[in-house]
TrEMBL record:
The keyword Transcription applies. InterPro entries: HTH_MarR-typ (IPR000835), MarR/SlyA-like (IPR039422), WH-like_DNA-bd_sf (IPR036388), WH_DNA-bd_sf (IPR036390). This is MarR family transcriptional regulator. It comes from the Bacteria. SUPFAM superfamilies: Winged helix' DNA-binding domain (SSF46785). Keywords: DNA-binding, Transcription, Transcription regulation. Residues 1-152 form the HTH marR-type domain. Coiled coil: none annotated. It comes from Flavobacterium hungaricum. The keyword DNA-binding applies.
Length: 153
């Protein structure tokens, strides 16, 4: 190599982006193991969970509500919701007041699969992050701060 490549960080272990990427891949691998038997991807689970959270307070949850709750791209949410509808986990109906929107609801089988998935994912999370012990709350707080600061970019 004729030119030396210069990095800001002295090693990969000094790079927060690199470490976050590595951690994310390992965590996603763990979630895939628990979600595969339920025939769910992580993205499908995230959108079902967002719908579950939102449905606790609102009977007219829309695709945009789900996209905003999950910080996801609206077009991707639309495609994944179609897949979830094909699987029989959700229904999409015309919104009562907004003709451009659809109201998204969990079906009975969607509620059952979501509850099973929540148990599996939460247990996987507890196991994955267990080494943080008393630092878990601080870790969560730091992640929330980064999400809040960067979600509109």
């Amino acid at each position: 190599m004729s030119k030396e490549i210069n990095f800001h960080f002295k090693s990969p272990k000094d790079s927060p982006g690199y470490l976050l990427g590595q951690l994310t891949m390992l965590w996603q691998r763990k979630l895939k193991k628990v979600l595969d038997p339920l025939d769910l991807t992580q993205t499908q689970f995230v959108l079902l969970a967002a719908l579950g959270w939102l449905s606790k307070k609102n009977d007219a949850v829309t695709q945009i509500d789900i996209a905003n709750q999950s910080n996801s791209d609206r077009m991707m949410v639309s495609k994944v919701l179609r897949t979830l509808q094909e699987k029989g986990f959700i229904t999409r109906q015309e919104h009562e007041t907004d003709t451009r929107a659809k109201t998204i609801k969990l079906t009975d089988s969607g509620e059952i699969i979501l509850q099973k998935a929540i148990v599996e994912v939460e247990n996987a999370d507890l196991d994955f992050f267990s080494s943080l012990d008393e630092n878990l709350s601080s870790f969560n707080s730091n992640m929330s701060q980064l999400i809040d600061k960067n979600k509109n970019e």
